[in-house]
Amino acid sequence: MKVATQKLTAQFHLPLPSSKSNSPSQLSAIDVNKTCKQIIQQLATLLPTLAVWTVYQDLDTGERQLVSEDSPERSPSAQATPAFRASSFTSGQSYLDFLSLQQENWLLEDLPLLEITELTVSEYHAYVCCVGDQSSTAAEYIFICTYEPLSTGQQQLLLGNAQILSQYLAMYKERSRHVAEIASLAETLGRAEHQLRNPLALINLYAENLRLGLPSGCLQEQAILIRQTADELSSRLTDLLYYGQRAKLQIKQHDLLTIVSQSIKGLQPWLEQKELQIRYPDKPVSVTVDSWQMKQVFDNLLTNAVHFSPQGGTVSCNWHVYGHEVLVEICDRGSGISEEDLKQIFKPYYTQRLGGTGLGLAIAQKIILDHQGNLWAENMPEGGAQFSFTLPR
């Protein structure tokens, strides 16, 4: 067994999810398939492969898929045997004993993740690198056959591509999990909306009528409190319904600086109360987004940062342009996020804020996913927490 451990950078850009996908917040099976094809085509070009394929789990169909690339001109028996062409795990023809290899009799239960294992195969050399699920019934991996053993540098190239594919598959699964949570919540809210909306409207109306008919004093204040409470419950219901809905984006070109400035303006009374400053770049950058929804993202993230910032502190908001995407970072100087909270911080209803609904960050993440971006949180070495998200340009 030979193992290579050096990390390399991928030599191509991973494709963004298709904007025409039926589920805009989920990496489609087509995108994953395209990524697998790019990786194995790159390996077939850069390495002396006789054949190379990758197997992954299609989360839409629940089936394992195989994407392959062969080099029939490198095979001495290529003229006498059918070319190896397979688009799914159970289809395709083979030459030599590739069909037998696809049956995975060699697959080990404890195949190590992101390590290259050399298999004992007659006539040629075979290498496998696990990139995802490690169980014998659902393993995701890259498989390569060669006539000559791979050098250390060639194994490092294989490992670098395997690491990129592993990260992409992890992102694919994480997105799918969030989409499933959203779909489940949407179904529940759809049944409950009519049972809540009308009674809240009636409570609000009757409370206002009572306020108008009562003299100034304690009773009128109680009527005002009833109306305000009904308004608050209605607002939270709107948040719930929005989180469960499939977003209808109004995509246009907007200046990110303008959106951030509007969000900060709404926080000004709170900033003055806590003597806080929000620092952000004064250079505009154009992004293709739904401006109203993107403002909700900044409202939620900046509100969160202001809440956890100490009196007289500073919140920083920066953005950087990298090729076809923009990276936005919002950082506070609070006490940071515990390891347990980091695991659950984007789950609906999970909150550490007194009086919070636990939907602010969940809604922000949904909006970013709908825009084909990613949102994550981390602690800063110097203290405080940072929320970062990407947007395609």
Verbal overview:
There is one protein chain. The chain is α+β, with helices and mostly antiparallel strands. The chain has two domains: 29-173, Beta-Lactamase (2-Layer Sandwich), CATH 3.30.450; 249-393, Histidine kinase-like ATPase, C-terminal domain (Heat Shock Protein 90). It has helices at residues 29-46, 98-102, 152-213, 218-244, 256-266, 268-274, 291-308, 339-344, 360-370; strands spanning 49-57, 64-70, 116-119, 125-130, 141-146, 252-255, 277-279, 286-289, 314-322, 325-331, 375-379, 385-392. Strands 2-1-5-4-3 form a five-stranded antiparallel β-sheet, with helices on one face. The two termini are 45 Å apart. The model is unreliable at 1-26 and 72-96 (pLDDT under 50).
Write a concise synopsis of the structure shown.
This protein is α+β, with helices and mostly antiparallel strands. Helices cover 42% and strands 18% of the residues. Strands 2-1-5-4-3 form a 5-stranded antiparallel sheet, covered by helices on one side. Strands 7-9-10-12-11 form a 5-stranded mixed sheet. It has a two-stranded antiparallel sheet with strand order 6-8.
Structural class, from secondary structure content? alpha+beta
- Report the principal-axis shape: elongated
List the uncertain runs: 1-26, 72-96
For the secondary structure, the number of strands is 12
The amount of helix comes to: 40-55%
Q: Distance between the terminal alpha carbons, to the nearest Å? A: 45 Å
Structural domain tally: 2
* Overall radius of gyration: 27 Å
Oligomeric state of shown chains: single chain
